[in-house]
Amino acid sequence: MTISATNLTTENPSVEIASDSDWKDVVVPPGDLYSDEPPLESSLHLQQLVLLLKCLEWLWRDRTDYFCAGNLTIYYSPRQRKSEDFRGPDFFVVLGAEKRPRKSWVVWEENGQYPHVIVELLSDSTATTDRGFKKQLYQDTFRTLDYFWFDPESLEFQGFHLVDGQYEAIVPNAAGLLWSQQLGLYLGVYEQQLRFFTASGELVLTPEESHDRLTESHDRLAAKLRELGVDPDALG
Fold first, then answer.
1. What's the pLDDT tens digit per position in 51-65?
2. Model pTM greater than 0.90?
């Protein structure tokens, strides 16, 4: 977009209007905007965020049709302005999106897509906003279908699903897990951390946990073979 002196008028004749040659092009802000979020509240919040990201990315490591991020700004101004209408959920997932790195999530550059799932990590300074303003925003503007919040310190955990435009509390199952229709996974507290669980209730592991379990299984098999008089190392 170019703005020149011919586009401008003034009622004050004393104001000197620059000539076309003095004007430079005014560039509309690009969609590739940097995130602008404050640091997380504590090391507990950081560990929790990394855990959610790590587990989902490991579980969906063969998928390329989603984007998940933590503490990343979402720009959603109808006027496509970086200076207004932006919010940074602690953790969010967008389905049907290209899996690639982004500096931020810019709705007008992403086919108008908003997150399908959001998790906010409560703290003393954010809890009121997360339970009030953000819940209303995610319900009415983002239309995010599954919204959860979790407090890494008090372990408060609650989830909501959008039904006919209104959030309804998700009823926990017998194990205290909350179902996310969008992810096809349960969320629940395990060893004082928020974790994902499969539809059958199995814990979604981190890459490190998967490696440890594989190693343990290998060691048990080797021990059993030795009991039977077979040297596992000789099997190649």
1. 999 999 999 999 999
2. no
